[in-house]
Amino acid sequence: MLWLLRRLGTSLLLMWVVASIVFLALHVVPGDPAEVLLSTGGTSPDPYAVAELRTRLGLDLPLHVQYGAFLAGLARGDLGVSLVDDYPVAEEIMLRLPRTLELILAGSLIAVLVGLPAGTYAAVRHGSGFDRGAGATAAVLQSVPVFVLGTLLILLFAQTLRWMPAGGYVPASESLLRHLVLLLLPALAVGKGLAAVVYRMTRASVLDALSRDHVRTARAKGLTPRRVLARHVVRNALSPVATVLGLHMGALLGGTVLVEYVFNWPGLSTPLLRAVEARDYPMVVGIILTVSALFLLINLAMDFLYAALDPRILRS
């Protein structure tokens, strides 16, 4: 229990550090943020408009007051209002966040369903043709950028074979089958790198477990190879795989931005790109903080899963 509380406290501390860095970045960057937001085409903005925007953003208050108000707003879930359309940032994020999470979870599921059995089989058949071929495939998947693979998937399955639509989004409540069909290609693009990582880690972990003394003892007792693999090898090999999976699931948050753009998937990438182009500071900050919080939550969940797989961690 102490280990779990310590990990939870560390995650909360890191979230506070990230929020503080994002807040201070506004004041460390040279120039008046209000002038930057209102500047268009290299012309100087109206001083009255700058003063009004500074008041609206609270930039005319002392720094410590702004910082306190910023943290208080985060504690209430208030991320401010978009400067473009006066729409609450939190509501926009909550509308689009489930779509991004769905894409990440679908990509992670594909990665596990492909990488885990492939890595296990490659370790059991170490040195075989499958082992060499799967290793080469994993290297290629890790080296190809997500937007390149996404474009190739569209060219192959949508333009050439015409098996799948090129992109778009249909709510699951409207048509579940259509929704899953549109999700498949972007999920493949998102999960391809993670599948290679899961494959490599699973293969290495299973190879290490196969050489342990308790595995040799189980074989000597006459257990079948399938029972030895299921009860004594795979379970012990899952702990490092879970750790790597958690780290890379957080990294998928960055890759989904390009994938959503390529496949026209209406997740967080659309308001983020629009906010950066329009210099919509509250929207950019809100999405950055949301992504940072998700990264920490994913890693915290993987820590709990790691502890469940290896109870010795709870005693550390």
From TrEMBL:
Record-annotated ABC transmembrane type-1 domain positions: 97-306
SUPFAM superfamilies: MetI-like
Pfam families per record: BPD_transp_1, BPD_transp_1_N
Membrane topology type: Multi-pass membrane protein
Keywords: Cell membrane, Membrane, Transmembrane, Transmembrane helix, Transport
Family membership noted in the UniProt record: Belongs to the binding-protein-dependent transport system permease family.
Protein name: Peptide/nickel transport system permease protein
